[in-house]
Amino acid sequence: MRLKNLPGRSLSALRFAWSELGRWGRLALAGIGLSLLIAVALGFWIPDSAKRHLLEGQSEIFSAVVDDFQAADLVTRSADQVVIAPEFEEAVALRLLGGDTIRVKLWSADGLIVYSDHPAQIGETFDLNELALKSAEGVTTFGVADVSDPAHAFEENLGELIEFYVPVIDGGFVYALFEVEQRVDTLNATVGRIRRNTWLSIGLGLGVLTVFMVSLTLANSHVLARRRRLAETLFADLVAAQDHERRRIVGSLHDDIGQPLYRLLYGLQGSRSRLQADDPITVELERLESLVREVDSTLRRELRGLHSSLAEDLGLGPALEALADVTREETELDFSVDVGTGEELGAVSRAALFRAAKEGVTNVRKHAGAAHVWVRLRLDDNRVVLEVEDDGRGIKAREGLGLTTMKERLEAIGGGLSLEPKPTAGTVMRAWVPRANGKAT
Predict the structure, then answer these.
(1) Among 17, 99, 146, 394, which is least packed by CB within 10 angstroms?
(2) Where in the chain is the domain with CATH 3.30.565.10?
(3) What's 72-183's CATH class?
């Protein structure tokens, strides 16, 4: 039997290849998806984090400058008043103004502007905003400036600004606040470069990861395909050997046992015809005839069972109908067969599904105590599914050896088997095999 290679040139072939990848393929896709989510999150988080760190670094620089001003007595406190030295303005121009910094103010704790590089603001009093109030607790703060605040009347036309508040502390008491306002152009440009480089790195990393995962997945799919072809070959050889042995047994039972039984029966009937009806030997011959007929009936029943397995060669539909006929003859089960697909199956899949049907029906007869059994064959996406359903007692124990063996055989050719209880009463056994190139193997 020649088996088909793993297809790869059509949509159905791609679907089949995906089913061949199984859990590994799904894990690979899940890994790529998770990596993509993490990468996107990092793409947004890294620039934002970089911006935060840049602002924190800038605030530390301003804090160091304020410490230097205090060490040089450029800012002092006298009778709860903020005092600035004559050199203060020159130091501010040298250390703080210029570049992105467009405004420097020195506030007293009660909201009085003691110093501003814009002289018109000196001496004005305003309510401290949230950032200033938080800084008055002894910490350096920063945030986007609210240019609609009256205290920013001279900056409202300068666009978006970042303002820093640095506390001036003496003896654990905050008596003044430095406010430094900066344009965000340079900051935004720096963060923009960081964002571009971050996304570029993430894109390259995801590309390499995707290529690696796809290559690994395809390599794994080739290994799975080779294993499956080997399993199909071995299973096909097993099916052929079983069918050959079954035919030999059927022939031997029919020729070597069945025919001698008929000769024996005819001999007993001939001997009885020569005797009187009331002869004691006649009674014994009649008993022997009955025994021979019983053996013949048992032999015929076993031959039908063996021959029904050979019906696989006629197609799965006729084989299932033959199985239904034999079951109806031997039991009182109401047996229904529904072959929902006219698709021709390959010998390997046909044999596997028919053996699964026989195993399922045998379990119903032995254990279910059912009145009805339904056998259905249908297409389900990339699978051909066989269902054996009954209305019996349901699952009472673990899967037996027969079902376990059948499940292993189906899995060896890329299929599977499941056993599930019905919501009301009874059990549904499902066995399936994959499709390839639009046809089941």
Answers:
(1) 99
(2) 318-441
(3) alpha beta
CB-based contact 114:179 (threshold 8 Å): no
Q: How far apart are CA 105 and CA 124, in angstroms?
A: 11
Which residue, 175, 118, 185, 109, is CA-closest to 151? 118
CATH 3.30.450.20 in the chain is located at 72-183
Q: Do residues 435 and 12 make contact, with C-beta atoms less than 8 angstroms apart?
A: yes
pLDDT band at 12 (very low <50, low <70, confident <90, very high): very low
Average pLDDT of the segment spanning 361-378: 87
Which amino acid is it at 290? S
* 362 neighbors 390 (Cβ within 8 angstroms): no
How many angstroms separate the CA atoms of 169 and 175, rounded?
A: 6
For the domain spanning 318-441, the CATH number is: 3.30.565.10
* Predicted confidence (pLDDT) per residue in 199-239, tens digit: 898 888 888 887 887 787 777 777 777 777 776 677 667 76
The whole-number pLDDT of residue 13 equals 44
For residues 65 and 158, the answer to whether their CB atoms sit within 8 Å is no
